[in-house]
Specification:
Layout: E1 5-8, H1 27-38, E2 47-48, H2 53-63, H3 66-75, H4 82-87, H5 105-124, E3 130-133, H6 154-166, E4 170-174, H7 181-186, E5 193-200, E6 224-229, H8 235-253, E7 257-261, H9 280-296, E8 301-304, H10 315-327, H11 331-337, H12 377-391
Parallel strand pairs: 1-2, 1-3, 3-8, 4-5, 4-7, 5-6, 7-8
Length: about 400
């Protein structure tokens, strides 16, 4: 296998756009690509194309229920028929909901699946050892409905491709602050797909699932692990739980490949959750995932994007750090050498990149010494340790 990392072109994902005020906005992708190019960390030689839409369409139809795909197609018209509109909410698509339908929705969602399939094939064929498709990670979609900004489940499509075409065992690692419910339920009875999700507890946050007792079912019992973290969890507790659980899952399951979802909405700046972590977790989690992939899966690692709703201050840096780790880029040495890392490149964001906030970060990592201390820090950490102990019981 060639020791290289490829970047799957995500330009087509710009069409996956609900409306200008919607938090799931493709500007996050262009800002990340700008940041990496200005840092000298991404060039055209590393980029590969998505698979053809026809191939991704077949995968979508194999994964999702026929009536749901038909509903998505009908609601993708410029002016959907009244009957399609009346049924939209049945399929999780509502003009005033989290996942509103929009013109061209089916084609845009299929293009995201195409990118994640390309990432899976690049790694499993031996063309590359690692692949990143930042537009992917739509982990909330179900076979019969959309949910949580997700229309088709590209992560489940990539995992299904790996299982069916390559016969490999998959460790799925979900770092989004929202439970990776869609992927979990797709493979809940499959002993050859281990789903691991760390997220804010569903007691307070969408989708309301992802508790320690969700451990898989039937022959898949034991191949599911959930860490439901307390609101206002900070870096040390988050990373302690993540590292312990990841190491345990990998040592027990011994995967052939790691597929990871990198929602970056556990950051303190994110407007849609209550976790109080800094950019440090987005430096450390990819490092831990790569270590597991190297030790257990011969380096095979497929990474996808996901949530993250502070478009300017968080998502580009978090996803930039992910790409730097996947490449083992020399810039990481400078980032690790200083508490806040080196300065971000001058000129970023480029002119014309939307409404840039007045207080943009100047460095790769956050200066948390300027943040107000979190009340109940020791109590939150203690509660997380108790949850971790309970979550790991079934793994021995």
């Amino acid at each position: 296998m060639k020791s290289r990392t490829v970047w799957v072109d995500s330009s087509a994902a710009g069409r996956y756009r609900f409306h200008d005020e919607h938090p799931f906005h493709p500007i996050r992708l262009s800002l990340t690509e700008q940041l990496l190019r200005l840092s000298g960390a991404l060039d055209a030689s590393q980029t590969i194309d998505s698979l053809p839409a026809t191939e991704a369409e077949r995968s979508v139809r194999a994964l999702h229920r026929p009536d749901y795909v038909a509903a998505v197609l009908a609601l993708s018209a410029e002016r959907p028929a009244p009957e399609a509109v009346r049924k939209a909410e049945t399929y999780g698509l509502h003009p005033d909901g989290d996942t509103p339908y929009f013109a061209g929705m089916h084609e845009a969602a299929v293009s995201i699946v195409a990118g994640s399939l390309a990432a899976a094939d690049a790694v499993m064929s031996g063309f590359a050892s690692r692949a990143l498709h930042l537009a992917g990670g739509l982990h909330h979609a179900f076979p019969e409905r959309a949910a949580g900004f997700c229309v088709y489940n590209d992560a489940a499509a990539a995992i299904s491709r790996i299982r069916e075409a390559y016969g490999s065992r998959v460790l799925y690692v979900d770092t989004d602050v929202h439970h990776g419910d869609g992927v979990q339920w797709f493979f809940y009875t499959d002993p050859d797909v281990f789903t691991f999700s760390i997220h804010e507890t569903g007691k307070y946050l969408f989708p309301g699932t992802g508790f320690a007792h969700e451990r898989g079912a039937s022959s898949g019992y034991g191949a599911c692990l959930n860490l439901s973290m307390e609101p206002y969890t900070e870096d040390d507790s988050w990373l302690e739980c993540f590292e312990t659980a990841l190491e345990k899952a990998a040592s027990v399951f011994r995967p052939d490949v790691v597929v990871s979802q990198h929602g970056c909405d556990a950051h303190a700046f994110d407007p849609l959750a209550h976790v109080h972590c800094s950019m440090r977790i987005y430096r450390e989690m990819p490092r831990m995932i790569r270590s597991v992939a190297d030790r257990y899966a011969d380096g095979r690692w497929i990474a996808l994007g996901g949530g993250g709703y502070d478009h300017y201050r968080v998502a580009p840096r978090a996803w930039g750090l992910l790409w730097l780790e996947m490449n083992g880029h020399p810039l990481l040495e400078a980032i690790d050498a200083f508490p806040c890392g080196p300065a971000l490149p001058s000129g970023w964001p480029l002119p014309g990149t939307g409404a840039v906030p007045p207080e943009m970060p100047a460095t790769w990592l956050d200066d948390t010494s300027r943040w107000a201390p979190m009340p109940r820090r020791s109590e939150i950490a203690a509660n997380n340790r108790k949850m971790l102990e309970l979550a790991l019981q079934h793994l021995g």
